[in-house]
Amino acid sequence: MNDKKQDQKIQTPRGMRDILPEDQDYFYRIENVCRKMAREYWYNKIDTPIVEKADIFKRTSPYSEVVQKQMYNFKSRGNRELVLRPEGTASIARAYIEHGMKAWPKPVKLWYMGPFFRYEKPQAGRYRQHHQYGFEIFGQKDAVLDAQTILLFYNLLQELHLENVVVEINSIGLPDMRKKYEKELVKYIKKEGFDLCPDCQKRLKSNPLRILDCKEDGCSRVREGAPQIVDYLSSKSKKHFEEVLELLDYLEIPYSLNPYLVRGLDYYTRTVFEFIVQNEDDEDGAGLSLLGGGRYDNLIETLGGESTPAVGGAGGVERLIEAMQNQSVHPSYDQKPDIFIASLGSLAKKKAMKLYERFRQKRVRPVESMGKGSLKSQLKRADQLGVKYTIIIGRKEALDDKVTLRTMSTGRQKIVKESRILSVVKNRL
Ligand code: HAM
């Protein structure tokens, strides 16, 4: 199809997708697990606008691909440069300063979930509009918080029953020592005469660290023998990194040291991490980066705020869904209904509807299929759903204000007064 025809076709812009009903369950499940983590680790939710001033990202990650090549920028009517946000951390740092959160009790813990935009070449796991969930902590520099951030993400994936995930970790120290390391790296690359891609040729001057992250053939060879950044850490940074690793050992979180993990954004200091999921069908075995993050102690200052240590991470919802689907993880894995309500006849149906509401209000999760005609087909549905108990309201029971409670595993049935059924079921569950 030629470009003109392509443009005229009524469809989503390239790299952007509708979220159809079949994917909504996954979104809902992931959001629920994020909410659970937020509740258990005491994070508060924050939503920032989808449109931000371009400057926020240009100042905080000036050399990154995300800012240099992937921003959706446009001019407002007042001629200001705005962007569709490409990532969340800089926006939240902006909000931290704007709302005087430095006066809030420390640490300030914030989480978010929403759409982000990057003008990338669309491919599996890379969309121009994607969604991220993220967790950030401001105001404390202790290594405990780096470890707890990793623990939170580890638990989040455990909660979703995901397997084959590896936590990769590294420390990239502070800007001063990083400059020294970058000099050595450039020296090494020049000495060995690697065949770098055009982007990495430019990075040799602007951002040599990112060469370590390039997937092009010639560039990936650099990693085979390049000096390692951990050998250049100051004693304080080294101690911080050791503490994080000791805590991960203590918490029994399996991790793998990756001396060449550098991350794509420029604001990181010291700890950086990524969670990689392996897909058994994947031929190159590189895995997919599910989420990433690290410490970013200088970010708030870069945006004009008071020096504030911070650590956090974020993951892509679409990538998580892809991993769940590859591993056949059902989105409603532990959202099984508690009880099935079967009914026969119009009075029974009315009573079943009312009972359904009574259970729902008391947080017992009922399910029904009143649209199905015969009792047999309703019980078949109850079996498929794997509920422990079914309540049957037949014509006679409806007239007598009674119901039958059936234990699905044994088939044993018991008549119970309608007014008592809620407490009987609650006691049994
Ligand atoms: P990031 O690694 O650039 O980090 O993005 C976070 C996650 O978003 C990635 O691990 C990936 O799962 C997902 N992601 C990124 N780009 C795309 C895309 N084009 N399509 C689908 N998924 C994508 C950040 O953005 C940092 N703000 C993370 C952070 C939070 N660091 C500290 N706190």
According to CATH, what is the class of the largest domain?
A: Alpha Beta
Mean pLDDT over all positions: 93
Bound ions, cofactors and other small molecules, one mention each: histidyl-adenosine monophosphate
Strand tally, please? Answer: 16
> Mind telling me which CATH architecture of the largest domain this is?
2-Layer Sandwich
- Would you tell me which CATH topology of the largest domain applies? BirA Bifunctional Protein, domain 2
What's the number of structural domains?
A: 2
- Helix content, binned percent: 40-55%
Give the biggest beta sheet: 8 strands, mixed
- Residue stretches low in confidence (pLDDT < 50, at least 5 long) are none
Supply Rg. 27 Å
Please work out how many helical segments DSSP would assign. 17
- Structural class category: alpha+beta
Termini separation: 59 Å
Strand content: 15-25%
Q: For the record, what is the CATH homologous superfamily label of the largest domain?
A: Bira Bifunctional Protein, Domain 2
Strand order of the largest sheet: 1-5-6-11-10-9-7-8
- Per the principal axes of the C-alpha atoms, what is the gross shape? elongated
Topology diagram in text:
Layout: H1 3-8, H2 21-41, E1 44-45, E2 51-53, H3 54-60, H4 65-69, E3 72-75, E4 81-84, H5 89-98, E5 108-117, E6 129-138, H6 143-159, E7 165-171, H7 175-192, H8 198-206, H9 217-220, H10 222-225, H11 235-250, E8 255-257, E9 271-277, E10 288-295, H12 299-302, E11 310-316, H13 317-326, E12 339-343, H14 346-361, E13 366-368, H15 375-385, E14 389-393, H16 395-400, E15 402-407, E16 413-417, H17 421-428
Helix pairs in contact: 2-6, 6-11
The structure holds histidyl-adenosine monophosphate (HAM).
Histidyl-adenosine monophosphate (HAM) binds next to strand 6, strand 10, strand 11 and helix 13.
